[in-house]
Structures are given as structure tokens and as C-alpha cells.
Amino acid sequence: FPYNALVYLSRDGERFAFFGDAMGFFDYTTSEYRAQKFLLKGIGKAARYVRIEFFVRGRYFAIDEVEIVR
Question: b/e per residue, 20-47, with b = 16+ CB within 10 A?
């Protein structure tokens, strides 16, 4: 799993504002495959665009699905 999943929001797709790290206090001790949900609560902002910047450990990282909900 990545160290960080930094979330940025934008209304116009050009100017993004940082809103938090979706990884939170994740336990990094395991290296096994697993599915995990990460949440970033309390944003309270409307946005049309979401940018997620991942900082990974190791050589690769794969994402199967990203879901953005209100």
C-alpha cells in the first residue's frame, strides 16, 4: 500500500486545493494483497475534479477502482 494518498479538489480543473491524506493512520506492517477502503471525511466542498497523488513503497502499485461519493 502507498504511504500517502493525497487528495486535491478543483472546480475548474486547473487550480487544485489540498484537502487531506486518504491513507490516514493505515497499518503498513503487512505486505499481503488485500482490498481496502480509504476515507477522507468532512471535506464539505463542492468540486468537479478530484486529483489523488499516491506515494508508494516498492516498485509498483495497482488500483482497480476509485469511487468518489458525496
Answer: bbbbeeeeeeeeeeeeeeeeeeeeeeeb
- For the whole model, what pTM was predicted? 0.76
- How many CB atoms sit inside 10 A of residue 9's CB? 19
The tens place of each residue's pLDDT in the chain, 70 residues long, gives: 778 889 999 999 999 999 988 887 665 555 666 667 777 777 778 889 999 998 887 887 788 888 887 7
Residues with Cβ < 8 Å from 68, sequence gap 6 or more?
A: 50
Name the pairing type of β-strands 4-10 and 49-55.
Answer: antiparallel
